[in-house]
Amino acid sequence: MTVKLFRNAHIFTPIDKGRALKGAEQGKIAEINNGAILTNCGMIEKIGPEADVLKGLDFKSVHEERDLGGVCVVPGFVDAHTHMCFAKRREDEFGMRLAGIPYLEILKRGGGILSSVNAIKEASEEELFETTWENVMAALGKGTTSVEIKSGYGLDMELELKMLRVIARIARETPLDVCPTFMGAHAVPVEYKGRADEYIDLLINQMLPAVKEQGLAEFCDVFCEEGVFTVEQSRKLLKAAKAMGFGTRIHADEVYDLGGAALAAELQVNSAEHLLAASEDGLKAMGKAGSIAVLIPATAYSLKKPYARGRDMVDWDVPVALGTDCNPGSCFCESMPFVFGLAVMNMNMTVEEALVGSTLNAAYVINRAKKLGSLEVGKQADFLLLDGEAPTTLAYHAGSTSIIEVYKRAEYVA
Ligand code: NIG
Ligand code: FE
Fold first, then answer.
1. Calpha distance 210→215 (Å, rounded)
2. Inter-axis angle of helices 260-267 and 280-289, to 10 degrees?
3. What's the pTM?
4. Between the chain's N and C termini, which has fewer beta carbons within 10 Å?
5. Per-residue pLDDT tens for 48-78?
6. Helices in 23-156 by DSSP H: which ranges?
7. Containing H/E element for 356?
8. Which long-range contacts (CB under 8 A, 24 or more apart) does 21-26 make?
9. What's the 275 CA to ligand 1 centre distance in angstroms?
10. Ligand 2: distance of its center to the CA of 158 in Å?
11. Which residues of the chain have pLDDT under 50?
């Protein structure tokens, strides 16, 4: 029972309404000047203006007290979408892309995701843990206190389970909250070239049941894309996953508009990711269905593609969350502050919308909003101290993280 008191804080936080925030709601955050946070065993017991928090407080029960000097405090970032579990970088491919070879062309030639599969085969489980740990701890230093991590560089039973075991170990051995996603449908494995339907059946009949039985993933994701999995194959997989009790998400319309957003709406998936090329009708349908758009502007940056229509999505009542996509190929970036800046500058979201997108709405994407995503009574005391006057600094101070300190469950962690 450790009781901590953080005083003299300028707090900015979304307010949880029991669902992801959308439309005008996404642009509203609470601001508490001269605020305080009282925590007990890492959970927020009281938060508000300092005078209110201190009223009736028995100071003898407080084990640690800290004056934050009036700095700006925001919730820790929740990175809603990553492929951080990988064995090797693919810097050579970045060079190829700079020379004009398209991302999907590199995959078609057996590189891309398929080259990461070879690296996973060669790495021991311990080595894979070490590279993943480095990625995760780098993200923590940049303010990510919770993260989603996908499998998907194994593409067979043994290697996918190896990745998921590493992700489970990351959850046990780092301070972060970790949400594991099974993404066996990340690419068609070489052995199944031209037989994607058979691979989908393998996923449904063998791999998903094994993952379920071992309790290694909460969500199932699929790369619905030209030359990868079709809308029909994605539908079949996600329906089966849902029936087995997995949450569902989909990489939709990242490079080409195949109708992934419309499929997301039809299946009422929890979230649809990327959406760089998604159609207006598909996006509006997602808004009606309540699926969250996970936007990943660092991927547009890294692939030199037009940014997703973040501004329009908020205006069309689609709840928007943000993620890094951290992976060795399309986007080697673990920095939520960078994503925040791109969301504001290149997707024209407001600072408030970007803050909600990188905290509370992202917590809804990973189904952890009961404990994460906003600084409110009953939630974890996961927060960041920023060096500016307001969260605006995250976009304003380009190339900096603006982060002074990172706290997870009221403990200083970075
Ligand atoms: O989200 N699109 C599919 N998956 C990742 C890329 C993975 C990779 O290139 O290794 C993405 O962009
Ligand atoms: Fe991705």
1. 9
2. 20
3. 0.97
4. N
5. 999 999 999 999 999 999 999 999 999 999 9
6. 50-54, 91-98, 103-108, 113-122, 125-141
7. helix 351-358
8. 21/319, 21/356, 21/360, 21/361, 22/287, 22/314, 22/317, 22/318, 22/319, 22/320, 23/314, 23/315, 23/317, 26/314, 26/319, 26/320, 26/352, 26/353, 26/356, 26/357, 26/361
9. 13
10. 22
11. none
- The answer to whether the CB of 44 falls within 8 A of the CB of 379 is yes
- Say if CB 172 and CB 140 are below 8 A apart: no
- Three-class DSSP category at 49: strand
* CB distance 90 to ligand 1 below 6 Å: no
CB-based contact 395:336 (threshold 8 Å): no
Instruction: Strands of 90-244 (E only): list them.
Output: 144-150, 177-185, 219-224
Per DSSP bridges, beta strands 292-295 and 271-274 are parallel
Angstrom CA distances, 93 to 98, 99, 307, stand at: 8, 10, 21
> Which residues pair with residue 6 across a beta bridge?
37, 66
Tell me the C-alpha distance between 276 and 256, whole Å: 8
Nearest CA, atom 3, ligand 1 = 223
According to the model, what pLDDT value does residue 1 have? Answer: 79
| Rounded Cα distance, 142 and 339, in Å | 11
**Ligand with an atom nearest the CA of residue 255:** 1
